[in-house]
Amino acid sequence: MTTPEPEPRLPAAVAASVPPYPGAPGYVIPEGGGEPAAKRPVKTLDLVITIVLLVADGVLAALASMMGMFLVMASDPCGNLTCDGSLIAIGWMMGMILPWVAFAITTVVAIILMVKRRLAFWVPLAGAALIVLSLVLAFVVTAAGVPGSSL
User: Fold this and answer.
1) Do residues 72 and 88 lie in contact, with contact meaning Cβ atoms separated by under 8 Å?
2) Which of 66, 126, 142, 74 is closest to 100 using CA atoms?
3) Which of 71, 92, 95, 126 is the most exposed place for a label (fewest CB within 10 A)?
């Protein structure tokens, strides 16, 4: 007949700091029945400010996209010059699409933070900067296709 191996024992100092697992002898159910902690409170002011700023970001994205449409006119002075039409077309498309991509990313991140009840007002502010930077990038790409242009 074989004898079972004894369970490994922790040193007394370590064992005192480790809470017992559920079902172990001496396990005590925490007060409140082990229910999950209360949810974070809703921050109404943050919610209102975030929504207003998201609407403003939508307006900014629409304006930036309209400005991007006019980037196609960068090819007007080309005449006898040799312009790179592909760079102008890429810059033009970037100017129309990237502001909406930045707005969509901003909206998704802000909604996730609001659902988790975390501060979210800063996300539309960062999104506005991202929208403006996307338009500036489109201007730079378009200007690279026109020789002699300066930004």
Assistant:
1) yes
2) 66
3) 126
Residues 6+ apart with CB under 8 A from 74: 88, 91, 92, 142, 143, 145, 146, 149
CA 84 to chain centroid, in Å, comes to 34
* Angle, helices 85-115/44-69, rounded to nearest 10 degrees: 170
Tens of pLDDT, residue by residue over 117-143, are 899 999 999 999 999 999 999 999 999
- According to DSSP, residue 75 is labeled G
pTM: 0.70
Q: What is the 8-class DSSP label of residue 146?
A: S
Q: 67 — phi, psi (to 5°)?
A: -65, -35
Integer Cα distance of 10 and 15 in angstroms: 6
**Which amino acid would we find at residue 14?**
V
d(CA 112, CA 38): 19
Measured from the Cβ of residue 44, the count of other Cβ atoms closer than 10 Å reads: 8
Give the DSSP H or E segment for 28.
Answer: none
